[in-house]
Amino acid sequence: MMSATSTLALTHFVTLADSFDKNKVTPGVLGFIVFAVIGGAVWLLMKSMNKHMKKVDFEEQPEGGEAGTTAAAAPAAEPKTS
Asked: Which residues, including other chains, have CB under 8 Å from residue 10's CB and lie 6 or more apart?
């Protein structure tokens, strides 16, 4: 059941919806603001990612083959039995 105020509000929205040209609808200022905020967030995320990637110390092949000897020299841990 609709009250008189809700019916009146709906009739105002219907008349506003028919008053503009449906072929010329644009996103407007709100669309620009949302797009700018998303662009700024992506820029900040990329800046943060670059900062974190610079901190990564990655060597594709260790110098002098030290990694192979340390893995072979380390004794395997034996499981404890209680």
From this structure: 2
Backbone phi, psi, residue 61, to 5°: -130, 120
Distance linking the first and last C-alpha atoms of the chain:
74
User: In a structure prediction context, what are the per-residue pLDDT tens digits for the chain, which is 82 residues long?
Assistant: 567 666 666 666 555 556 767 778 788 899 999 999 999 999 999 999 999 999 988 777 767 765 555 555 555 566 667 5
Question: pTM for the whole thing?
Answer: 0.43
DSSP letters for the chain = ---HHHHHHHHHHHHHHHHS-GGG---HHHHHHHHHHHHHHHHHHHHHHHHHHHH----SS-GGGHHHHHHHHSPPPPPP--
